[in-house]
Amino acid sequence: MTHAAHALANEALWEKDRAHAVHPWTNFGPFEERGSLIFTRGEGCYLWDADGRRYFDAIGGMWCTNIGLGRREMADAIAEQALRLGYSNFFVDTGNDAAALLAAKLAELAPGDLNRVHFTTGGSTAVDTAIRMVAYYHHVRGHPEKTHVVSREASYHGSTYLTISVGKRYGDRIEEFRYKEDGIHHLSSPNLYRRPAGMDEDAFCDLLVAEFEDLIARVGADRIGGFIAEPIQASGGIVIPPAGYLKRMWEVCRRHDILFIADEVVTAFGRIGHWFASEAEFGIVPDMITTAKGLTSGYVPLGAVIFSDRIWATMAEGGHRWFSTGFTYSGHPVSCRAGLKNIEIMEREGLLARATDVGRYFEERLATLAELPLVGNVRGRKLMACVESVANRETKEPLPDEVGESKRISDACEAMGLMVRPMGHLNVMSPPLVITRDEVDFVVETLGQAIRQVTDELVREGVR
Ligand code: PMP
């Protein structure tokens, strides 16, 4: 079924969107034909389209609707703040109560001495700011050459000119946009499924760490200022690194005076059962954490760079230097109020523990899909997971891109009232933390049925 087919009752709305709204990552051809699926309502884990059809949103918006949609108390908090103080300038030496309270709360929840919070408008602007802070920090310390940034393949860090260049997802290097390349280096993705044949996890980890050390030897520690990593790569394919990898990369950073930025735009606020994954799951206290998404559960835009007292002390040295960066909406009182309410709800309802419990069940149930012939790998941690399709389970060779099996699988799910995200050869899920065990069963059974259906089609078409 095309989107157009089930948007008939709202054709005018659908047509306005198709004719005028330019969506992120538009695929021009299919969009011209099909337009978009337009939602008008959401509650808990469910979405309703303009025709009243209901879908279970296993994507969680865009990895972000952590507490679930349609929360009255969240709407009330936002409305109350909008009425009382809907905006205030946050520049230089003016602030607002909501931002002060949220900054203090984040300092309490963040690991180690990460006690300084700089609010931004979302994930991209948080990462962009963090990377510029790397240069700032080293410059102040008398190392103006330490501006290079090390990132990894299959990473996604945002969509500003700088952050899209720092990230590198397969298939995203769109020539037309002419990404920035100087001063940015990409190491291999720590993807265990795609590690060299016959190599065990420890040896793979050694290889990845050696690659970083080789790069430092080649480029020079005097030029590399920062290393950025999602603790679990999200948009690049739910890549859970080998045991010990992040700790060892962090130690390399320490040895060479390279700041470690943990991009926790996805992994924070309960996605894998913790406020932040860096320390709780991987045993590291980074120098900076970037976050967004689950910080407000997507109700309003907000991002943050949370950084160490050590960085603050260095940057503030001298007393008369300016931290010359920021946005009109930095520290927006309505966004910060939403952040406070979001954390309050998560604490009161014990959503971290719940994400761990239901997340483990999700892992267990999803693992059963690994038996399907089209499925090469099922992987994930708690409430972030994916299923990877392959042409051949032995060689792990993917199907030709033009087969588009992940889109066909997600379309088949959609027809059965389930949203999962197609990405390359993956179908990705990050449901709200309030998902129940019964809903996990629904997601896994429906996805399984969709995969079987598409497999049958591919066999009929002679593709498999
Ligand atoms: N970092 C990571 C790890 C992300 O997944 C994303 C968004 N998917 C971003 C940064 C960018 O965040 P935003 O879209 O809010 O700018």
TrEMBL record:
UniProt protein name: Aminotransferase
Molecular function terms from GO: transaminase activity
Classification lineage: Bacteria, Pseudomonadati, Pseudomonadota, Alphaproteobacteria, Rhodobacterales
Segments forming a coiled coil: none
PROSITE patterns: AA_TRANSFER_CLASS_3
NCBIfam families: PRK07036.1
Keyword Transferase: yes
A Pfam family annotated for this UniProt entry: Aminotran_3
Keyword list, A-Z: Aminotransferase, Pyridoxal phosphate, Transferase
Record family assignment: Belongs to the class-III pyridoxal-phosphate-dependent aminotransferase family.
PANTHER family (alphabetical): AMINOTRANSFERASE, AMINOTRANSFERASE CLASS-III
Source organism of this protein record: Albidovulum sediminis
The organism's place on the tree of life at top rank: Bacteria
Cofactor(s), by name: pyridoxal 5'-phosphate
